[in-house]
Amino acid sequence: MRVFPWILTLLTAACGSMNADLATAAEPREPAKLQDVVSNDYNRPPSPVKAIRSLFSTDQDRVFAARQRVARASYVASKVQAGDIDTVDYSVLHDASGTMPMEGEIVMEGHAVAGIHNPTTYQGGPGCSSCQGGTSCGSDTCDSCGPCCPTICFPLCFNLPLENLSFRAGVQGFKGPLNAGMDGSFGFLYGVNWGAPLFSRDNGFGVQLGVNGTNANLHGASFTEDHRDQFFLTAGFFRRVDWGWQGGLVYDHMSDHWYYDIDASQIRGELSWKFQCKGEFGFWFTASDETSDIDEQINLPGGTAPIFVDESFQPHNMFAFFYRTPLDVCGGEMRFSGGWTDNELGLLGADLNVPITKSLAVETNFLYLVPRHSNEDDGDPCACETWNIGINLVWYPRAASAASAGKNYYRPLFNVAHNGTFSMYPTE
Q1: Do residues 267 and 287 lie in contact, with contact meaning Cβ atoms separated by under 8 Å?
Q2: Which of these three, 45, 65, 88, is where a domain ends?
Q3: What is the pLDDT of residues 358-387, one digit of tens each?
Q4: What gap in Å lies between CA 324 and CA 326, rounded to an integer?
Q5: Rounded to the nearest 5°, which phi and psi values hold at 79?
Q6: Domain that holds residue 214
Q7: I need a surface site. Which of 20, 121, 219, 359 has the fewest CB within 10 A?
Q8: Overall domain count for the chain
Q9: The CATH number of the domain where 319 resides is what?
Q10: What pTM did the predictor assign?
Q11: Is 233 part of any domain?
């Protein structure tokens, strides 16, 4: 008889559940609203400890996470089969023009390609920023996705994809031989970077174009009252993949105006192997033999007469291995670099991009060229310290989100040149 109360309790709960289902059967339900099905713990933002651990996840952690995803998918499927979740009717998409990109789709035919879409079928993007279809001069519309696509009509009409356009602004501190062994330079950086498919979306190749400007030493320095203005230009091409060989090549130009006027250029490139699971390992370099002459004078602190600077400078030729990995927590990525220069200096560097809102991300970077130190280094121009550190706020005006911008196929592979990727030293 002791079992009877438990049976009565179970029958009461079952009846209550059936009545609740009948009462809500006529109410409309949103299809596949996972936050009502899956535990709320899954939708909460990760803790700082979990975020740090995800940066150094092991194979065992990734296997466990994959099992969790399978279990979650099985749970949702059982809910759909039981009728607790309404299925979605995808037939309405048959009449839509173009092919919708599916996030997470991996291309494995022929050559694998990175990103969130198949470049052979991708025709649109968030906000119709990369329309396909006909246009006509004098019209700013696209046949396939309406009036939201910019069209250039001089002398020929073509669409200008803007989903890979980004603007950045921030601060930068740097120092090198051009600082004459005295004060470092600190100021503000602002710029724009843009990437697009090369000719068509079915070949996997992209082009990029960007500019940066800096204003530093706004109150002069201890040896000059001039403020420092710089302009950087970067243009080139690249190719991204899901796995395999990935790389590109760009041309950098710098104009630097301080107590001198310098114009210099270099070639910058990288080649890497992207693993199927996560991360990539590669090699990047800069190369230039262009020299710029300086014939100016500066006033050293405590000096009674000006010092004449009559030297030739050229860009550092840098060579570095790197490891780059995506950040699972927030959709960003980070890279660590280590290498050397052609004048036997060591090189350490890193850069990081972390989305913080739907359209904003924080971008940081640093580079340090380890100087030579010995008793024979007195007067050695390569013994001067060279470093750069910057932090910028990046805005993606046409991307679906700052996180998705980090997955787009034709986003720029290279950052626009700055004092961390373009540094000068005096030739001996």
Answers
A1: yes
A2: 88
A3: 899 999 999 999 987 654 445 554 557 899
A4: 7
A5: -65, -40
A6: 165-426
A7: 219
A8: 2
A9: 2.40.160.40
A10: 0.66
A11: yes
